[in-house]
Specification:
The complex is a heterodimer of chains A (752) and B (190).
Chain A (H helix, E strand, L loop, with lengths): L29 E3 L15 H4 L5 E6 L4 E5 L7 E3 L2 E7 L4 E6 L7 H5 L1 E3 L11 H14 L11 E6 L5 H14 L4 E6 H8 L5 E6 L4 E7 L2 E2 L5 E3 L3 H15 L9 H11 L6 H6 L7 H4 L1 E4 L12 H47 L4 H10 L5 H23 L25 H47 L1 H30 L4 H14 L5 H5 L15 H5 L3 H25 L9 H4 L6 H7 L9 H4 L1 E4 L2 H4 L17 H12 L3 H8 L2 E4 L8 H12 L8 E3 L6 H9 L3 H6 L1 E2 H7 L16
Parallel strand pairs in A: 1-14, 2-8, 8-9, 10-16, 16-17
Antiparallel strand pairs in A: 2-3, 3-4, 5-6, 5-7, 9-18, 10-11, 11-12, 11-13, 14-15
Helix pairs in contact in A: 5-26, 6-7, 10-12, 13-14, 14-18
Chain B lengths: L3 H16 L23 H20 L10 H6 L9 H4 L3 H23 L32 E2 L6 E2 L2 H8 L5 H8 L8
Antiparallel strand pairs in B: 1-2
The chains are: A alpha/beta (752), B mainly alpha (190).
Chain lengths: 752, 190
């Protein structure tokens, strides 16, 4: 799935001369997440069985990552598939179905039922039903159609020091279910070594589920010195998966095992100097190359891509709409104005008419228009005139602040109460109220002006101080900034602490709550009667502010602090030559400075709105962190020594005779899928060199094909006479029991 | 929608039928093969069973109580014990004594074999030992994997710098424990 998506790059906030981090970069290289490894239907080769004879062996490299199988005369294995079996009951057709190997990845249902034949993370077969399915699949695919028996000897690989129960059960299946005429077992890494013509040497085999170090003398392994490290490709993939899940806890895509295995193979490499390389892995230089992006399939929510013209058209349409609205509003206003003017006319006319009328007539006229008295009419007319004038001015676009605030007169206030009647007294009270209001407004106005003056004065003094004593002034500003920074930090800490029940902040809060809630505030109550007089003091009410974890009040404060910070920083930027843009708090928090950003999102800005970027994984430190475990198992919490330690110990202390040691050192042989990382060989030889005696000569080589040589070696051996003598026949199995094993140089020894 | 679904479904079902192993003829299988129901065992079970078996063999070796203990043949051969005057007919008077001697002989043979070639490699004893090398006690940041100079005493997480420390302190419930688990340093409650 490819979705192309372009976005406008936001204008750059600041560009330091040295800071090229923001400059636009070419689009990153992106790897797509792989799909399940389903290979489609593969018809079985049928003619091969006819080619084979009773001397031909079926050679099976029974590996925990891939099972390889073929005839002994094949150059490469015919079959290679994961030991996965999906076996379940199909509800629709009401029968049991089973899919083996890559076929088990055919669809979501089959994938959901996958069982691995091996016990997870080991090379020991644990699920024998799955193992039987695998063997069925092998024999069917090899075209065996003999009745009642596979009629060919079987050579199968097993792990070093395989458990006798496991070998017994395998023999049982091969002899009793498939009626194999004879069976032999061997060790995969020894076959690989033999195929690469090794005689004396040290095999370091890091495979899918374990890593073995095996000394070999004269073509025979020294079983007593063999050592195993419980780490392989499987554990590496698991570890990567774990790390990625911790790195992206809310990743929307589903990360699967086979994807992780694929990533380990594709992106990981062995670092030559781990400590040093790790230290600067997230540094800016070269992060572009070190950071690998894995893209998961995604759907962009809104892909609204508009051309310039379209945008212009939309803007025009918006403006048009605005204009129309304005026009409508103006029209409405005009209509209202006209209406108001008419009303005004009417009332003025009424006023005219009242002149010279009798009292009764006046009352009638006033009542008609629901006025109480003439004064109310006057007031009405006055108000209307004012509003009409205002409206007119607004229409004409004239702003008149000249509206002289006429100070209303309060004549009644000066007249003593005795001289007033009932209505007069009422009026007086009203006037008194009005007067206090007017006075209060006036006071506020004066205060405001004073404040303004004070601020101006402060500003003036500040400026003066700055001009006279720049150093001191800057010092003050810097301390102010530091104090603000501290306050912001404190606030954040407090906020974080409140989430934690054990923190001091929450405990104080709980204490206050408990105090407030308790009904017995000490002896006062017992003396009886009196109230605890909470609230008499205004400060009492502050308790509720400390108790409230409310965000509102804090939000206001936050705004305040941030705004203050901005002004202080702006001042510093303006006057302090040593304070640059990059030192501001905003810049300090910027992604280009952030190690975590480089770790999580690589060298580019992250846009949480973009679905594409949300669906991306960034592999960076993991690329060397995962393969490193073989050298330093403690990284992944494995309490075992690394391969270099094991090998060095074996060479320096495990070998009795010095000539044996020297001959082993001349051929250090690397095989297995977990050694395919770039740099594995170099790293191993470098580290071994460091722990070996100076005079020792050492040579490290890698198997021709670390994956297939085990099978090839097994196939080669199955044509040699040694194979014939190592075979356990069906008759021997029946006579001597399922534990019976013929020892040979490439296989395990009997353990009871 | 409705007409297309069956056809696509059908083709997929056909593919599945092609892949299905149970539909393929497997004449080579023994029709009477009936595997044991409990053949799937974990390594732990297998090792435990083997150890138990071995222990029981050892225990029944000498003092099963069903027979008078006999002086062991090897002890006689090596001269550790003075051989008793016995004649062949009375040595193995009863069958249980004979069986006991046989198993002793097997055990001794095995012991001798192991003494000549060193201890037998078993799945459990070839595991490599922990490293005590001080160079391998390096600490790495649990979050980023970079070399870590500091440890947060509260969560026990190692961290690279103060920015990562902020992340460590702002981990949500159980987050720190998951990071510790990746390093195998988490607390396991049993």
């Amino acid at each position: 799935m490819t979705i192309t998506y372009t976005r406008y790059v936001e204008p750059l906030l600041s560009a330091d001369a040295t800071d090229g981090k923001r400059s636009p970069k070419p689009p990153p290289r992106i790897w797509q997440a792989i799909d399940p490894p389903f290979k489609g239907y593969q018809p079985a080769p049928s003619e091969a069985y006819q080619q084979s004879s009773r001397d031909t062996a079926v050679v099976i490299d029974n590996g925990s990552s891939l099972v390889r199988a073929g005839w002994s005369f094949d150059a490469t294995p015919r079959l290679s598939f994961p030991p996965d079996v999906a076996r379940y009951r199909d509800r629709k057709y009401n029968r049991t179905v089973s899919y083996v190997g890559y076929n088990a990845y055919a669809d979501a249902t089959t994938r959901g039922q996958i069982r691995n034949a091996f016990e997870p993370g080991t090379s020991i077969v644990g699920n024998w039903d799955a193992m039987e399915g695998i063997l069925d699949h092998i024999f069917v695919s090899l075209g065996i159609d003999n009745d009642g028996s596979i009629d060919r000897s079987v050579l199968m690989t097993e792990t070093i020091a395989n458990l006798s129960y496991t070998r017994k059960t395998m023999s049982e299946i091969l002899f009793e279910c498939y009626s194999a005429p004879s069976v032999a077992y061997g060790i995969d890494s020894l076959f690989s070594y033999k195929f690469n013509k090794g005689v004396n040497g040290l095999i370091i085999s890091s495979a899918h589920s374990s890593t073995h170090v095996i000394p070999v003398l004269y073509g025979k392994p020294i079983m007593s010195s063999i050592s195993r490290l419980n780490w392989g490709g499987y554990q590496g993939a698991e570890y990567l998966l774990k790390l990625l899940k911790l790195k992206y806890p809310s990743f929307p895509g589903k990360l699967t095992d086979y994807q992780a295995q694929h990533w380990v193979r594709e992106h990981c490499y062995v670092s030559q100097e781990f400590e040093k390389e790790m230290q600067c892995f997230l540094d800016w230089t070269g992060l572009e190359d070190r950071d690998h992006i894995i893209q998961f399939p995604f759907t962009e929510h809104m892909v609204i891509e508009k051309s310039e013209e379209e945008l212009a058209r939309i803007a025009e349409r918006k403006r048009e709409g605005g204009r129309r609205l304005q026009e409508q509003a103006a029209k409405m206003r005009l209509e209202k104005l006209v209406q108001k003017e008419q009303e005004l006319e009417y009332y003025k006319d009424l006023q005219q008419r009242l002149v010279g009328q009798t009292k009764k007539e006046t009352k009638r006229l006033l009542d008609e228009d629901e006025f109480k008295d003439e004064a109310q009419l006057d007031k009405m007319i006055k108000d209307m005139e004012k509003s009409v004038r205002k409206a007119r001015n607004k229409d004409l676009g004239v702003t008149d602040n000249v509206e002289e605030e006429e100070v209303p007169a309060f004549p009644l206030l000066d007249i003593p109460d005795e001289q007033l009647d009932e209505a007069g007294l009422k009026q007086k009270r009203h006037q008194r109220l009005l007067k206090s209001g007017v006075e209060a407004r006036a006071r506020a106005k004066i205060e405001k002006e004073q404040e303004k003056a004070r601020k101006a004065e402060e500003q003036r003094l500040d400026d003066e101080r700055r001009l006279n004593d720049l150093g001191g002034w800057l010092e003050d500003r810097r301390t102010a900034r530091a104090a603000l920074l501290q306050r912001i930090k404190d606030r954040e800490r407090q906020k974080a602490d409140l989430g934690n029940r054990k923190s001091l902040a929450s405990q104080m809060r709980m204490k206050t709550l408990a105090n407030l809630a308790s009904d017995a505030p000490g002896r006062k109550r017992r003396r009886g009667g009196d109230d605890d007089n909470f609230g008499a003091n205004d400060e009492d009410w502050g308790v509720y502010r400390t108790v409230a974890m409310g965000e509102q009040s804090e939000d206001e404060e936050e705004e305040d602090l941030d705004a203050e910070m901005k002004t202080v920083e702006a001042q510093l930027l303006k006057y302090d030559p040593s304070f640059s843009e990059s030192k501001t708090m905003a810049a300090q928090k910027d992604w280009t400075k952030s190690l975590m950003h480089a770790f999580l999102r690589g060298p580019r800005p992250f846009d949480s709105e973009s679905q594409q970027e949300v669906h991306q994984l960034h592999l960076n430190v993991e690329r060397i962190r995962v393969p490193e475990v073989v050298f330093q198992p403690a990284i992944a919490g494995l309490d075992q020594a690394g391969i270099v330690d094991i090998a060095a110990d074996m060479i320096n202390h495990g070998m009795g005779k010095p000539q044996d040691r020297n001959s082993i050192l001349k051929d250090i042989f690397i095989t297995g899928g977990n050694t395919l990382f770039t740099g594995f060989e170099e790293r191993l030889s470098k580290e071994l060199r460091a722990v070996l005696p100076v005079e020792a000569s050492m040579r490290v080589r890698r198997a021709n094909d670390p994956l297939l040589d085990a099978w090839k070696g097994a196939a080669q051996w199955s044509k040699e006479p040694g194979y014939k003598s190592a075979l356990v026949t069906r008759q021997e199995y029946q006579e001597k029991g399922s534990d019976y094993l013929k020892e040979h140089n490439l296989g395990n020894t009997t353990a009871f | 929608m409705a007409p297309t679904t069956p056809s696509t479904d059908d083709s997929h079902q056909q593919l599945l039928d092609q892949l299905d192993l149970t539909l393929k003829p497997r004449p080579f299988r023994n029709a009477r093969w009936k595997p044991s129901q409990r053949r799937n065992k974990t390594i732990k079970q297998i090792v435990a069973e083997a150890a138990r078996k071995e222990a029981s063999v050892m225990a029944t070796q000498d003092n099963s109580g069903c027979s008078t203990p006999n002086i062991q043949s090897s002890a006689i051969e090596t001269g550790a014990v003075t051989p008793m005057q016995t004649n062949g007919s009375s040595t193995h008077a009863n069958i249980s004594q004979a069986a006991q001697n046989l198993s002793t002989m097997v055990l001794e043979r095995n012991l001798q074999a192991s003494l000549s070639t060193g201890p037998i490699a078993t799945y459990t004893n070839i595991e490599s030992a922990p490293s005590l090398h001080p160079a391998h006690q390096k600490h790495y940041c649990d979050i980023t994997g970079l070399p870590a100079a500091y440890t947060d005493p509260k969560s026990r997480l190692r961290y690279f710098n103060k920015e990562v420390f902020d992340v460590v302190r702002n981990l949500n419930q159980g987050g720190a424990e998951r990071y510790l688990e990746a390093r195998g340093a988490h607390v396991v409650l049993k």
